[in-house]
Amino acid sequence: MTASSIFQHSLRPPCVRHTDLACGRTLKPSTYLTRPKQEFGVQVSEDRGLLLRCQAKKGFGAGGGKKSKRRQYGPDLEEDDPSWIRVGRLTDFKNGKQTRAVILPDNTAIVLYRTPDDDVFCSDANSTAYKFPMIDANVIERDGSPAAEVPLDGTVYNLETGRVLVWCPKNNPLRFVLGSLKSTADPRPLKMYPARVNSSGQIFAKLSAS
């Protein structure tokens, strides 16, 4: 190896891998490593931000690294757009549960839904037929889109739009009674709010009308 090639080789950036980070994402220069500077086998300045690209085997949660076409990544919206508020993290969904209730500062509630592909959706806390708590809804797929099914009355909502896909079906004895009571009522869509996940797994929702 010539002196020139040795010099060029020394200029190559070190490869740093960390399996806690989602595959192929780049951290901002403002991100700091807090672990000992020799842990990854490279010299890291503790007083400077480190821009790095990591490779991991899996992404967040049940998606296993599969990047969803619907999932939206954004910057730290706390700084860039105050109309988006932080309502949680992907890691808040525990033990495989796909729904989570969030109490807002004004004591109103919303429900977050997480699909196997790590898409996150946000809606009002109660269903529109019988005000059933949507935190108990089943996250399913219907007609190629994510949906939420209310266990009590069987109503199914499209999670992308809130549109009613199934309204109070009479497919068991209890649902027959509930469906009969709503047989003349017009289906009411579920109120949905825009939701997105940034590159660090924080969930933001836009709850204002603007």
TrEMBL record:
Q: Which residues form the Rieske-like [2Fe-2S] domain?
A: 83-200
Q: Which organism is it from?
A: Coccomyxa viridis
Molecular functions (GO terms): 2 iron, 2 sulfur cluster binding; nitrite reductase [NAD(P)H] activity
Alphabetized UniProt keyword annotations: Nitrate assimilation, Oxidoreductase
Q: Which InterPro entries match?
A: Rieske-like_NirD (IPR012748), Rieske_2Fe-2S_sf (IPR036922)
Q: Name one GO biological process term.
A: nitrate assimilation
Q: What is this protein called?
A: Rieske-like [2Fe-2S] domain-containing protein
